[in-house]
Amino acid sequence: MVRPPCCDKEGVKKGPWTPEEDIILVSYIQEHGPGNWKAVPTNTGLLRCSKSCRLRWTNYLRPGIKRGNFTDQEEKMIIHLQALLGNRWAAIAAYLPQRTDNDIKNYWNTYLKKKLKKLETSNCSESSLGNEFSVSQPIARGQWERRLQTNIDMAKKALSEALSQDKSTFNEGRAKGSIHVESKPTATQTQSFCYASSADNIARLLKGWMKNKPKGSHSNNNSYVTQNSFACDNASSEGRAKGSISFEIDETFESLFGYESLESSNSDQFSQSVSPEVTIFQDESKPEIGDNEIMHFSMLEKWLLDDSACQEKNSLSEINYIF
DNA sequence: AAGAGGCACAACCGCCCCGAT
DNA sequence: GATCGGGGCGGTTGTGCCTCT
Question: Which positions on chain B have an atom < 7 Å from some protein CB?
């Protein structure tokens, strides 16, 4: 028996999300928390299927997401982890806080895969890419995996400990679903911060949208797209002068979400500034990461990078394992 | 200036897993 | 234990932008 689609094909809107839709979705999630996606289109009036709503949230609207501009370290981690784990993007994303599996997947498919293939073909001439990737000693794959597993086990253990502590300290104020907080902010604190963090993402989208808008889009026109806005704004948000348009939008969102300033909308700053006090969304963005977990991930990352430093020469042989 | 081709990325599709009943 | 449904995941597609000729 063929399973029916998650929603009716008719009356379901497809294609790029509009800022208006984003706002509706975020507002709803602010109020009800993520989860129960089936109910989202019904309760919000969005003409989107539940799955589309979930993806939009998890990949783009969720707070604390960093987009574009992969660093060298991240790139190396992706290469290592892909060699280790294969195309298990969700697993890889778990090691790269603030990155989504979709983002990593896209980055791999559009850039890294080609880069590595180039490397592979040019590798005959050895060291064509400096010392970054070259084949010399065969890697002790089993050892590598054992070390990874050990760290994963440690992380899991830390997580379960953290969670058990949470349960003892966290109480009824919790919304349904997967939401939980580590410390217990006041309702006002939580509420306003959640708005801020999500509004932040949307504001960045809108700013990017407004940049593109003069090309002929109107506010009621659905032809606009929101892509690239994060990357652009991450790069440009700091030290940016307030133009009239962005200022208007800021004001709009300030009034709409009660958010003080959107000008500090750098993801890194965001995560740094909030990491000790985890909000429901912060937590939801990486459900399995607690403070201890973060510590272990940092450790793991350090280990990966340290390891990459001494084993980069071997990475191609790992990569060849995949190709 | 215009068209072709490539690139980047958001979003969709279909399968699978897992918890609830 | 079987069935159902929601959600997660990976693969793929569609589309706008950019660069080259």
Answer: 7-16
H-helix or E-strand spanning residue A143: helix A141-169
- Considering the domain A10-63, what is its CATH architecture? Orthogonal Bundle (1.10)
State how far the Cα of A298 lies from the Cα of A14, in Å rounded to an integer.
39
Across all strands, nucleotide nearest A91 (CA–C1'): C9
Closest nucleotide to residue A228 (Cα to C1')?
B9
CA of A246 to C1' of B14 (A): 40
Fold for A67-119, please state it.
Arc Repressor Mutant, subunit A (1.10.10)
Domain with CATH 1.10.10.60 in chain A: 10-63, 67-119
The dihedral built from the CA positions of residue A284, A289, A295 and A298, taken in this order, carries a sign that is negative
* C1' of C7 to CA of A35 (Å): 9
Q: What pTM does this model have? A: 0.59
The alpha carbon of residue A211 and the mean position of all alpha carbons in its chain are separated, in whole angstroms, by 23
The nucleotides of chain C lying under 7 Å from a protein CB are 4-12, 15-17
pLDDT digits over A92-144, tens only? 888 887 788 888 888 888 878 777 777 766 665 544 443 444 333 333 444 44
Cα distance between residue A1 and residue A155, in whole Å = 41
